[in-house]
Amino acid sequence: GMQPHLQALLSLYKLFCPELVTITLPAKMRTFFKNSEGPWKAAMNAVRQRNQGSTPLTQAVFLGTAQPQSRKKKWNTQLVLPATSARNPEKGTEKYCDLLNTDETFPVEQLQTFPQLLQNIHCLEFPSQMGSVLTNPLLLHYMNCLRDESIYLRLYYWMGQMLQEECTWCVVDNTNETEFKSFLQTIYKAECFLQEGFPACEEFLYKSLPLWDGSCCRPEVLKLVSWIPLSSSPEIKSYLYGPLAQLFFTSSLYFKCGVLETLKELLENWLNCSVINMDSEPHS
User: Fold this and answer.
1) 3-state class (DSSP) for residue 145
2) pTM beyond 0.70
3) What confidence category does residue 222 fall into, taking pLDDT thresholds of 50, 70 and 90?
4) What is the DSSP annotation of 115-131?
5) CA 193 to CA 132: how far, in whole Å?
6) Which Gene Ontology terms describe the biological processes this protein takes part in (predicted)?
7) In 26-56, which positions are buried (b, 16+ CB within 10 angstroms) versus exposed (e)?
8) In degrees rounded to 5, what are phi and psi of residue 30?
9) First and final C-alpha spacing in the chain
10) Closest Cα to residue 85, out of 122, 45, 123?
11) In 3D, which of 120, 143, 122, 145 has the Cα closest to residue 132?
12) I need a labelling partner for 73 at 20 to 30 A (CA). Which of 13, 119, 219, 273 fits?
């Protein structure tokens, strides 16, 4: 019978081999098979529009994500520690906030030395601009010691949005590769400092590597690959090895050596992470 899933299968056959399907199929039917060529068509359209310069609109080609917001605010403005912390009450409500918040907080913009961090670690408050944490070693220390899930969620949300909006090979009107390189280097330095990868960066790599040409920001991208967390190893074959293999077999010897070096560093990071986890278990 003409069941919906059979109609969808027949329509797929009719698309690629129309001589095999002679019956008439309805014009509107439920979609059962996603178009695998969607990312490639979007990437080719992005390159065409960038070369022609006819459409100034920004279009993201990430699958499953909305179009990025306006790029009026640059990412590097978020990396400067703000003059006030996250808790910034209005003048009319300051006295009420003082009555409710009996704990004194130490302003993060006054944090300059490691002894200050140790003395005020119980009363620090993270800044409203989470990007400023990436360039502040003292706040990275605090973030590593505190292990507050809300702090990590704020940082990952901001980082994911910025990576999506600033990616030079996924956004049509973003051609400033130098700024995006600097952003990726900042993230990589923070990962090296914390000795762990960011999940937001891992998600960005999985979505953008199928559209990557292997040359744009190559050193920075490969460095980020080396810090993919160990917990994601089951999905790494299809999301990482597949796109890298396509580039590996069609690229120069220099690129092949860079990929092998990156995978070696990824394995070393995983081994170090597993050793730390084993040492933390009392009965291991």
Assistant:
1) helix
2) no
3) very high
4) HHHHHTTTSB--BS-GG
5) 15
6) CENP-A containing chromatin assembly; mitotic sister chromatid segregation
7) eeeeeeeeeeeeebeebbeebeebbeeeeee
8) -70, 140
9) 59
10) 123
11) 143
12) 219
